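hey can u run this one w/ zinc ion bound, need the structure tokens asap thx
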Amino acid sequence: MSGFGDLRELYQEVIFDHNRKPRNFHVLDPCTHQADGHNPLCGDQLTVYARVAGDVVEDVSFIGHGCAISKASASLMTEAVKGMKTGEVENLFRDMHAMLTEAHPDRDLGKLEVLSGVREFPARVKCATLAWHTLHNAITQASETAKTE
Ligand code: ZN
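ok here u go:
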């Protein structure tokens, strides 16, 4: 089983790297959609921004703070969904959730598979899915939500 151990180390390295140097870690200006996400179990707090033109997610970014899993997952997500159609993002959101909670996802999720080990730690699943839930909320809500203050 040494091969499995090596794979695991590689996955951890990718997660550490994305935690140390999160990709697309900034406010997106201008953006058409944004949402806040909070995982009180761990204290993870994220804001996800998206610029959607037609049905294409042209750009996506995030800011916030949290544990390594939540940040790495958000960072990997921004890389994965940039340029996708919103319908594809929704499919990927569903498949990510399946990968993190079920033994066998329907398809190969490429680089996002580095997060598959989280499945063995149910308490961390919310950390890994936080950014995805937040993006989902951002792109499914009306683009110009009025703020009262
Ligand atoms: Zn967390």
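Residues 39, 42, 44, 66-67, 69-70, 127 surround zinc ion (CB under 6 Å). anyway lmk if its weird
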